[in-house]
Amino acid sequence: MDVLFIEDDTIETMKLQRTVSKLQLKHNIIEAKNGEQALDILKSSSKLPDIILLDLNMPRMSGIEFLEIIKADPKYKYLPTIILTTSENRADLLECYRIGVAGYVIKPLKYEDYETKLKTVFEYWQTNELVKA
Ligand SMILES: [Mg+2]
């Protein structure tokens, strides 16, 4: 799958890359540091990603702002977007589901737990029929 991974924290990005390579997953991870950069990537690439993994707390454009923009755009609104966050804030969770997310995953602190959880996320989405652009 082509996975657009939107995350401002370099450590988190390394953690995801490490998980993908350790599990020998063949996914193509496209990195964006915030919502603004992610929008630029979406607009400039000829092919849309299969899924989006989205952090919430980011500078310049937060995950929720990014989500509102893509869900209001007929070109991007069907892209399955999964929140990947440390925020256990119920208001955030409700707001994300209201706007339209395909999932809301809380990042475990322990690396082993993170790996297990991400493995499940990737396997689940690989099982799905995805909208090919
Ligand atoms: Mg962040």
From TrEMBL:
UniProt name for this protein: Response regulator receiver protein
Response regulatory domain span: 2-122
4-aspartylphosphate carried by residues: D55
InterPro entries: CheY-like_superfamily, Sig_transdc_resp-reg_receiver, TCS_response_regulator
A family per Pfam: Response_reg
Highest taxon in the source lineage: Bacteria
BP GO annotations: phosphorelay signal transduction system
Species this chain originates from: Cellulophaga algicola (strain DSM 14237 / IC166 / ACAM 630)
